[in-house]
Predict the 3D structure of the following.
Amino acid sequence: MTSLPQNRAGLAILFILIGMLAISFNDMFIKQLAGGYPLHEIVFARSALGILISLLLVKWEGGFHLLKTDQLGLHVLRGIMIVVSNMAFFVALAALPLAEATALFFVAPLFITLLSIPLLGEKVGVLRLSAVAVGFVGVIIMQRPWVNADALGASRVVLMLPIIAAITYALNQLMTRKLGVKAKASVLSVYIQAMFIVVSVGFYAGAGDGRFVGPEASASMQFLLRAWIWPQPDDVWVFVALGVNSALIGYCLSQAYRLGDAATVAPFEYSLLPMAVFWGFVIFGEVPAWEVWLGIALILSAGLFVFLRERAKAKSITRGHGVRR
């Protein structure tokens, strides 16, 4: 099968919107299961089904020979970054409202901008650095340092987990930008699913009997380390939906960034924020506090400004003019 044409903006936007919708379902399902199952069991179940679907897509996109690579180390490193990012975010979901965890994660584009200076040698001017600062003010507001830790409903460590997820996600994106992605979207998805399976099996081998967690542990630690149990009949469909979603997410996000440039596609990732607010309210009855609304507004504004500024710079370079950043 021939390669898909590049820079098909409309199709790329469609893929990223489908991917964000799938992620919103994914996060909602995982939060729904967090009270009764360990994270590594959920990850294993969704990735086992997800890798089967991804392998079918590999076959459809050209055949299993596409899985052969001379960049295995880079696939592994990229996979580790995504695994750490996902697991940190999912552990946070066990204790934080869906909208709050999602909003804190969306500082990732700001970290990408900031880390591009030392890692990629990019020049970032005053305007974009100011936008990054505004976004981090939003993070500080959502962390509510003026509130007693007991009144937060979650520990300060848990509040930092979406930030850790954002940093590792940003490192993954920077690595992708620096090294380039030559593989098909389905192949990228297979390697990611494989990494999730390896990590979840490792967790099962070390902590699958629940030996490291007791009833007095926090909700996040119980979610991370409780013993595996056989899914209840009513929950089986949720595990199946997670597996289908896992393959759909990996494929749609990879495809979106293959078909369109990042400056066009990335702003549409912010469609996940209103979806998270919606599911948090409808499914879990969560209404964000005023600090969360303010933090969302600042992070959203800063992230969109960074993307729009980057897009304007790219257009200006294409036309042969410099842009002050």
In short: The chain has one domain: 25-319. Residues 25-319 form one domain.
